Amino acid sequence: MNTYQNRCQDNNFRLIRGVLTKCYILLGSNLGNCLQNLKQAVDLIQLHIGKINKASSIYKTAAWGNTEQGDFYNQVLFVETLLNPQELLTMLLSIEKNMGRERKHKWEPRIIDLDILYFGSQIVNDENLIIPHPWLHKRRFTLAPLAEISPDFVHPLLVQSNQQLLEICEDLLSVEKL
Known about the structure:
Blueprint: E1 6-9, E2 12-15, E3 21-29, H1 34-48, E4 50-55, E5 59-61, E6 72-81, H2 85-98, E7 113-119, E8 124-126, E9 129-131, H3 140-149, H4 162-168, E10 175-177
Antiparallel strand pairs: 1-2, 3-6, 3-7, 4-6, 5-6, 5-10, 8-9
Helix pairs in contact: 1-2, 3-4
């Protein structure tokens, strides 16, 4: 049994049976050893969420939203998971918490930030979860690594590819591929 066929809930594992869904997850860090934080998050995602099929390069990016903080290191993962969108969100929040993330203020510095960008071509509009990510098309730090690993994937609402969205993105903040 592969580790991605398990889901961690209250420190107990149970087998999930279902269909693999391809999803894209954005990782970000601007506190502590950012590169190590990203590596740890990648390992935990591989262990608890699913098989990582592609990983973008790591990008050093200017902070977005609250620009009065240090630069972020960002990466996008293309993952196959047996989890549904709500289970995926729960697991990502658990990974963030276990890595030491504390949520106090919007757009604050953080040891790790894990966002669901796409979940297949599904559209989710729940109180606690919106997929595709509602700001995906407005953030160069999201689009650059996303277009690197999946330029032709089409945003299910905007009906434009990741590459097209990157080309028309109005965000001018610095995004530097490492």
